[in-house]
Amino acid sequence: MTSDTLGDAPNAPDPVLHALLPAVLPADAYSRRVVEALRAAGREVTVHALPGPHPQVDPSAILAADIALARLPDGAPVLLDGAALPNLAAALPIDDRRLRFVALVERLRWTDAGLEAEEAMARWHLEQGALALMRLVVVPDAAVAATVAALEVPAERVVQAAPEDAGTLLTRLSALPPLPRPLPPPPPHDEP
Q: For residues 143 and 87, what is the distance between their CA atoms, to the nearest angstrom?
């Protein structure tokens, strides 16, 4: 993993894309295929594997995500596997102003068949909160885009891209807005 950034500017883009993916991920998983397509298109992608039984919330995955995110350089674009969002939900608000999050969502887990109403609602809230912090949400098709829209994600942040369509994703990644500049420190307070 590299932490160097281009140039001296604090918002200079990291030439490396970082991806937080479940360690146990099928070879045909959407996020894995997107990462492979980005690499084939010439982008360097560093994968950070998260342990645990995704999408179930797991303390080892939460700790691994906290450590991985804390080590990334400011402004780094970070691709997040949709199945890992429940385990990332607590860590994301800490770093959402420092990192550029992009979710790769093959499907949302709140829609899984056979879930009890309480479990479905818990997943809905976790996924909604996590997706609210994304600069982009990349989905494979219109059906997944509709489930993302049901979580009130603005349409302009949702990108439909087949896993092999690295060009569309690279174009959208290059257009990510810069991070907001930190606020200047408050002026000194004069004592009466």
A: 24
Name residues whose C-beta falls within 8 Å of residue 104's C-beta, 6 or more positions apart in sequence. Answer: 19, 30, 31, 34, 79, 80, 81, 82, 138
Kindly report the pTM of this predicted structure. 0.82
Taking only the tens place, the pLDDT of each residue in 139-167 is 999 999 998 998 899 999 999 999 888 88
Minimal CA–CA distance to 88: which of 166, 18, 4, 160?
18
d(CA 95, CA 97) in angstroms, rounded, equals: 6
Where does the chain show beta strands of DSSP type E? 16-22, 44-50, 77-81, 100-104, 136-139, 158-160
Nearest to 150 by CA among 119, 101, 107: 107
How does DSSP assign 140-172, residue by residue? SSHHHHHHHHTTT--GGGEEE--TT-HHHHHHH
Separation CA 71–CA 25 (nearest Å): 23
